[in-house]
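re: ur question from earlier - yeah i can do the single chain one, its not a big deal. heres the input i used so u can compare w yours
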Amino acid sequence: QVQLVESGGGLVQPGGSLTLSCTPSGFTAEYLDIGWFRQAPGKEREGVSCLTHRTGPAYYGDSVKGRFNIYRNNAENTVYLQMNRLKEEDTGTYYCYAPLSSCSTWMSGSNFGSGGQGSQVTVRA
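and the output i got, formated as tokens:
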């Protein structure tokens, strides 16, 4: 499994924005499918977004479409998840992951793999 270094997260008011970052260790982000899933207390894991390698498409969960944006900076070898218009229901621990399957398969399934340290996102007034 690709090791990923995550950062970002924090506390924000509803309507605010946060950006998460994910950098693969020893690998080139451009050639990996990289995404995020989240886990909230008492809820099942949920696929948030995934960016296909090279120039492939991005995928978003229905609950974040139109609000979140995933993109990659090849020079920084990092994938970012920009989260806008955050809602209280976006609260949870966000995990970056590089699925062995395609983004499409990964996002449509329920086995999101085991995350690393994760990033806590708390949306609260």
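The chain is about 5% helix and 40% strand. not sure if urs matches, ping me
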